[in-house]
């Protein structure tokens, strides 16, 4: 019996040491960025080995915000992510609702076509043709292009989550609404949509993470219009500008400006985050 | 889409509404998902700089297969980087999931914190790691010097393999969390009774893991690894944000290589046709990889049958 208890304690010790070690590795780069952003420029250039700043200064933020255009980048990021989140909530719940409850000829064929696109794995390689199509419609020089493509481009993962969620809502609700003379759209608008709060939270968080962190697509759409760059693209511009060696302070402050909203949202909604990310991918 | 028979009044008005509600998304979907695929198919037979185009038949493909070694090198790099880092990432994610599933004190805290890197932008990850591993004044070099593991600062990004190592570390850091959560979800759905009866029979933890846990989460494991492989092979942001293919294109992966030809990025001339042909071949190779993987891992996916 004693041996058993010893074994238990040892295995617990092992588990906690591994978890703690990974925990340190996991947060180290984040701490490095956040703490580094408060170092003075001199300190950054001469003392890279210290994690904690000798003196906390806000200079980097001031510079990034006022001189390096980060106030504009932040506004752009907020505008882009906010619009995409709002738009996607509407487009995905509607698409999920129509595919789940709607009846029309060819519905199944269309659904199959949508789903089968998942197997064509071109990733960012379709970015150029997408850009050319956006150019054709004149939406290739601002974040509107990114927003329209993300909102109407129908993300298959979101569609799956939405359809599966709406399936769990009882048909009786639709039927009684129909008896009251509600049309198909009215049922969505007045009966179904108010019941979708958990789904809306999940989709909102997934889309926020995706759009706030996105790099390549906004890069391509703002190449000729640097004023419209979102945060991530703006930070990367600093890196490739050739002044990278002297702008560590701006890169760290900029990265922190990009990280903090994401981390705050995550710490508040971590449950929805984790559920949302798994709901779509594995069950889908 | 233009001649939709459903708009005639003799049809059920609710069906009409359904179609009208879905139409914007359907148009968007076909425009931004299917049209680009056909675009790439068509342009792979053309030479084009984005403004003028000439039909050149199979010339782009001939060029890829006979004269463009850097493409194959970048493809090779994508494979080496992906499988190298997954060899660490997948076991690590599974181990952490098993530990977090033990319902010990504090696992809630660890779950939230260990998942944190997964919410951080891949581009920012690339930037942070390139700062941390900077040869001059980088914190990693300083730490290694302080504990005496190295005598001089290492110039991580000026040699191919050390640069690839950093890329691998950064990618594992950014991605293990999501796999960990998938595994954790799968583990939580394994019925507790199985372990209880194994306990009665006095079976060791290692055997329990290989004979109960792994078969039970087999199907999830199969899908998660597939997504991890395809996702890693499509890696682009991380490379662009850190090494950008340097030194001398030796850390270029297939996605960044083709991307640069499409957009004339990073000093290349725009070659839409050539890039389309490479995109097409890359797409086929990725599909083949998935197919081979699904065939060889068939047993894993059906371990519960």
TrEMBL record, chain B:
The chain crosses the membrane at residues 20-41, 78-100, 112-136, 161-187, 208-230, 272-294. InterPro entries: ABC_transporter_permease, MetI-like, MetI-like_sf. SUPFAM superfamilies: MetI-like. Keywords: Cell membrane, Membrane, Transmembrane, Transmembrane helix, Transport. CDD domains: TM_PBP2. This is Lactose transport system permease protein LacF. One of its GO terms (biological process) is transmembrane transport. Residues 75-293 form the ABC transmembrane type-1 domain. The gene is lacF_32. It holds the Pfam family BPD_transp_1. PANTHER family: ABC TRANSPORTER PERMEASE PROTEIN (PTHR30193), INNER MEMBRANE ABC TRANSPORTER PERMEASE PROTEIN YCJO (PTHR30193:SF37). It comes from bioreactor metagenome. The keyword Transmembrane applies.
